[in-house]
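BUG: 3D viewer hangs when loading the predicted structure for this chain

Environment: internal workstation, default settings.
Expected: structure renders.
Actual: progress bar stalls at 90%.

Input used:
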Amino acid sequence: MSVSAVQSSLHTEVRALLKEMNSRCTSQKGWIRWSLEKKLEVDPSCSVSLICVLVKELERKLKKMHKTQSHVHVIPILHTLYYSIIQSDSTIPRSLYQRVHECLMRLLILPRPHSAVVLSTLSSVQTEMTTPGSLHQRRVIAEQNLKSKNFTLQEKVFVLADPDVFTAQLEATVRTYLEVSGLLRDTPTAMKKNLMLRVMQKGLGTACRSSTLAQALQALDDQMVEKRFEEVVRAVERSVKHGAGGCATYLNGLQHIQRDMLTAATEGVCSARTDDYQQRHEETFLQDLSPPSSEVTEEDCGSVCSRMLSFPQISFLLWTDEEDLWNLLADFSLSSGSRSSVDEDKKDKRDGSEDGGTKRRLKESDLGDTLQPLVKNPSIAISRRNACKKRNPGDKLRLMREKMEMLPGSRRVLRDDRRCLTARVVVMGDDRVLGRLSRVLLSIRQRESKRLILTKKLNLELYYVPVVDVEPQPRSPDGPCQDEGRLSLAGLLGRVDPWYNSNINSLRATISNLARKHTNHRESESDQNLFLLDTLCYYLRCGTQPVNLPMYSVKMTRCGSDASSVVEDVFVSHLEADMPEFRHLKEKFPKEPSSRRKKSTVIVHGAVVSVSYTETSLSKRRVVRGEARMACGVVITSEPAAVTTGEDFLWVRFDNINLGDNKKIRTQNLRIRTMEDRTLCVCLDRDSRRTYTDVQRIDVSPCLDPGCSLRSRLNVSNEREPPLSKYLNNVLSLPINTFSGVTP
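Structure tokens produced before the viewer hung:
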């Protein structure tokens, strides 16, 4: 096909891709994007044509910047543009880069969060302009955990599935479709050869002797591959560090590396012992390895390297114990052989002389009492004298700095430059799994506030793939939780980010269809449906903008006067409480729509509860109110600022004696106390596993970040709060990565 015909075909697909975002049908969403990915993998050379089409679309959007809908369509164009650049194995013309750069510079005037995605794409384009091949190389090294002294970033993907949602058949099916990534990955040596060849092709262009260079790479032994690989990585990282000023040095370095490899291959052939059969092939090989002439054949410039971005290593497991996530992160942090970890371990050993006699007999013992599950033999655990360890002053501000970097629009790449490890945690389930994730996040922050273990070594990125039960579970008679509306947070993320709705929310139907099929575990790789795996990888690579879901702390006082009667927990979406003796009355509520419920005359008796709260309004005024209400239950739902474009707040609704007069309360702080010796049954995030009975009092407030309360953490009377602490929002939120994020 001609170039114009290819661009016309791609233009039709891109327009269909943008039109798909407005479609209400979710069963087939995401397939157009996937088909474009497959085209780039089969023929990476068409990436130049696709970039031309995307630039034309951006230029069209620039003419309609006053329309909000055009802002929404910018997001998929930007991510498709990034994917086209990183997948291309041929040199992209500098004139085309200039057009892309000009469009992105003009798009920076868009409101947030769109401008944050534009800025991230612009940074990637500028890096690729000055250092061709760097984006692909960095991505593969990090995802595949390839060892390199000059680029030490490493990533690992953990997929945690909620056992209450995943049946045995669904678990086996999804595990098969995700863990096939390990079968499709090359060996580390093959990956390094492909990376070197791809960088040479993109950097040198027509000056790259692709065919002869590929033969030279195949002839290298493992030790020489490591040496040459380090030379290429060093050249890339130096060029990225120096920016546009290092481009000429970078290209000269690649030419020097290519010449050395071809010369070494020539000398190896000349010195080898040959027989008649080898003699005939030596002449042909020496011709290929001769110095490059002014005329380069089309075959020699062709792409001979791997045509796809390798799948990352994915660990899939059922999330049966909340402690599993901490253990996975700690194991990843300890097992990595990063230079920073070694330096910090040496520093900890030096601090051990001031630690009052701490004996470190295991590497895991650096984690102290916070990682008990990893200590296999109690007899060789930490033994400590009665003394206090001197705290590192630099640790005091690290958690607060981490808090600032979690804000939307922050330069998250700086985090990667400082810490070499990135753990990408994907949770699969409904609102319940996000509720569990919020509890674990709070637990991690509490442990880190006592002693930094994970924060100084790795970045934690959170992703969410909504999955529902294939067959709805019956309602439990012992708790107030309802089965309906368990994907409220997935719907919220879909409204905030339509591109997330098109690609990730639509996976619910795909996963359900997979569960209905009887997968043959012995079927060939070519028959495997890679749509789920490809979509997850796309989400991990392009979903870099967080949506912060507010977390709320709830303190429940049970019957009894001892301290153990007070239970503290957190929720992120929903709290429901009712009185067991009046539970049967709730089922008599009319099922009509809310517009008709006001006319109902059904009388429902309940009990008196005391309510005190701080009422919030759109003007951000705070009014403290207290009242007594007749109710048989209460429902509290979260309204994040992501959809209110204001601030986070809670809607509180009481199941009242008169439904027509029952108005909602808008608040952030709430206290409910039962009267007449009544008790409540409380369920958090619609999770029956998090049900509390015999509750007499509920206190709800925004969850505070333990890492931002340094004075209480240090417990030192003369310790002064850092100057920035009073300007920092100390509320803890659950950052779920999406494609666009939201305005803070």
